[in-house]
Amino acid sequence: MTQQLLRITPSCNASQAMPISADRVLAGAPQEVIHNLFTNSKENFFCGVWSSTEGRWTLNYTEDEFCYLIKGKAILTDAAGVSEEINSGDAFVIPAGYEGTWETIGEAQKFYAIYEES
């Protein structure tokens, strides 16, 4: 079977905002939209577009994630307290095992590609 190229665009019109799990929220009342556009046949690689409203919440990554911030601003702080400001146009990787917080300033949107060990 021949596969076709899949273009990923920032449009998230088909998705609905959902609150970040209350047990993870540290500040604000952030809402997120996850528009997963591709899952591979092994169901361990995913990509699409994610966005959120303002707020701060905990992270505990079991997967590796490549991100490209399309718009907005975020601050990621690891468990040791080291903070990184992420701005529109920045690309970054959050490795499996990363623990800390994500804080969206205003609204943010990113492309994501996630790989999870089987």
From TrEMBL:
InterPro entries tied to this protein: RmlC-like_jellyroll, RmlC_Cupin_sf, UGlyAH_Cupin_dom
SUPFAM superfamilies: RmlC-like cupins (SSF51182)
Domain of life: Bacteria
Pfam families noted in UniProt: Cupin_3
Domain (S)-ureidoglycine aminohydrolase cupin: 42-112
PANTHER family documented for this protein: CYTOPLASMIC PROTEIN (PTHR40943:SF1), CYTOPLASMIC PROTEIN-RELATED (PTHR40943)
Protein name: Cupin domain-containing protein
